[in-house]
User: Which sequence fits this backbone?
């Protein structure tokens, strides 16, 4: 997700379990040499949040002076992503006097923090790289590498282990800091506060919750390091020349000859489906960039060339494939994310390619621009991604292996939904992310259901003669009725759509961006959904959502589907 500062960051999360109960068996209490087993007294003091949930821990490593003399509470092996992680914990002296407390995290190396802790709460923090297993510890261990007083009597609370590469992790919107409480499982909070850049005001705008219900895998390896698995064609690469918005950019410098100026990577076998190629790029005097992928078996390909000064498409090119979607998204600071998607047919050895282009009278060789390179006309690239799907999803960093982001869902609990068996109205604010693939259920934006025979749903329909419309469907005991918008949407990313609808025992209707349709008779009735949860979103950003156990009428849903909706109701 993108935070208010424009940086790509991880959602609020914590993979350290039982973050406020150090007496739990999940936490290892270990000692060695002259040390003794730490003693944990649960709920012995007031925590930073004012609750009586801080634990007291007493450590005694004895008088030994070797690294094998220790008294520690921690976890010796935690499964993590292969990436940078941060471990933090709140610590306070329980004696009123300053004490030297040590925390460390280890995997590829050991990073230690020894800090003098007094009678006020202090957040101790260490950061290290992980190769997939991580150890976190707090206490005392004697050697030049570690530290801590021989004996400690401290209060601890709020253990937090989180991924901190890219631009870090966003704060927990339910708190004033980043801490995320856990009990028996790791916690990943919804991506609330996702920001989209508004080039008109040169500012980042909070558009709501980013929801991606498709699991996506980045097939491109070393997504931020073009010096590694990427093959170079008539270019040289300078690594990590600039960090922008949490991304590390490499410089691509073209050779001064007539050639294809590019980097490419084989991504293995492709299925016969849409794939989307994307990369972040910043102009460094070259002005134009292209992105491309193709199937080596069918030799079908899709290509898009973009102008990085105007932030617009120059042209597309394809053979043996249909382009599903292309685009350029402004990320501020001169950075754009360019993408193209399409279906090139299945088979072994798909190739993902991007690089520099000229802008007018483009000649192509094997589907990629070929031109006389000019020394000094360079580009900066980062965040390369090739994924199955017709749209770009949020960036997934990779190193030596592919990485999958799991599918996510956003649900409303039945208890929080004002159900009425006679009349209800809704409004929802979306930024749609979709391609037109000719599907009647291109996206399911809202689904309040017991089962398929009893539901109220709002879907994006790209099938039939009237393409790209939004449809309200009411199904009661397998009998259904529906109404669709007449104004068609435009495929793409961040397509604003403010939707409102109403359902009564006599009729149903829907409105889009201030225009209501003609109500249709509700021949199905209202399904019994009082005990049912509702699912929101697909591959979308969800803004404001409201529901009333009342009929707003057609004028009401027109108002509720406008920018002034919050002022009207």
Assistant:
């Amino acid at each position: 997700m993108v935070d208010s500062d424009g940086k790509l960051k991880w959602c609020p999360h914590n993979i350290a379990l039982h973050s406020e109960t150090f007496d739990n068996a999940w936490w290892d209490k270990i000692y060695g040499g002259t040390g003794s087993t730490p003693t944990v007294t649960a709920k012995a003091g007031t925590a930073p949040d004012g609750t009586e949930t801080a634990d007291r821990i007493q450590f005694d490593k004895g008088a030994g002076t070797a690294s094998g003399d220790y008294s520690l509470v921690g976890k010796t092996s935690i499964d993590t992503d292969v990436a940078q992680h941060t471990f933090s914990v709140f610590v306070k002296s329980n004696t009123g006097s300053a004490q030297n407390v040590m925390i460390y995290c280890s995997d590829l190396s050991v990073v230690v923090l020894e800090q003098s802790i007094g009678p006020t709460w202090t957040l101790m923090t260490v950061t290290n790289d992980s190769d997939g297993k991580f150890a976190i510890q707090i206490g005392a261990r004697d050697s030049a590498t570690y530290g801590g007083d021989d004996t400690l009597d401290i209060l601890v609370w709020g253990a937090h282990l989180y991924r901190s590469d890219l631009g870090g992790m966003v704060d927990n919107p339910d708190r004033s800091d980043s801490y995320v409480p856990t009990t028996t499982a790791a916690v990943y909070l919804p991506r609330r506060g996702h920001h989209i850049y508004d080039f008109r005001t040169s500012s980042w705008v909070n558009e709501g919750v980013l929801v991606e219900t498709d699991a996506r895998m980045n097939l491109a390896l070393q997504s931020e390091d073009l010096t590694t698995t990427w093959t170079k064609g008539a270019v040289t690469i300078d690594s990590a020349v600039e960090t922008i918005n949490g991304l590390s950019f490499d410089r691509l410098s073209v050779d001064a000859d007539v050639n294809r100026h590019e980097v490419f990577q084989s991504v293995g076998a492709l299925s016969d489906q849409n794939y989307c190629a994307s990369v972040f790029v910043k102009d460094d005097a070259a002005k134009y960039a292209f992105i491309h992928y193709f199937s080596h078996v069918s030799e079908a390909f899709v290509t898009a060339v973009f102008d990085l000064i105007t932030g617009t498409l120059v042209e597309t090119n394809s053979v043996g494939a249909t382009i599903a979607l292309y685009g350029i998204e402004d990320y501020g600071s001169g950075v754009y994310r360019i993408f193209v998607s399409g279906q090139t047919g299945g088979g072994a050895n798909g190739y993902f390619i991007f690089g520099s282009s000229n802008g007018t009278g483009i000649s192509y060789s094997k589907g990629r621009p070929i031109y006389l390179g000019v020394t000094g006309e360079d580009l900066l690239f980062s965040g390369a991604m090739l994924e199955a799907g017709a749209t770009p999803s949020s960036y997934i960093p990779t190193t030596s292996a592919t990485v999958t982001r799991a599918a996510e869902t956003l649900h409303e609990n039945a208890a929080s939904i004002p159900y009425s068996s006679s009349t209800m109205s809704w409004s929802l604010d979306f930024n749609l992310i979709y391609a037109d693939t000719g599907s009647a259920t291109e996206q399911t934006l809202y689904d309040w259901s017991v089962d398929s025979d009893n539901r109220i749903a709002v879907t994006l329909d790209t099938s039939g003669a009237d393409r790209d419309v939004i449809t309200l469907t009411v199904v009661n005991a397998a009998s259904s009725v529906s109404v669709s918008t007449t104004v068609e949407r435009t495929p793409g990313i961040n397509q604003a759509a403010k939707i409102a609808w109403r359902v009564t025992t006599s009729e149903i209707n829907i409105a889009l961006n201030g225009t209501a349709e003609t109500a249709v008779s509700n021949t199905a009735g209202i399904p019994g959904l009082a005990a049912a949860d509702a699912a929101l979103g697909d591959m979308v950003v969800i803004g404001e959502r409201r529901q009333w156990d009342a009929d707003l009428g057609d004028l009401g849903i027109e108002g509720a589907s406008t920018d002034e909706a919050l002022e009207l109701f």
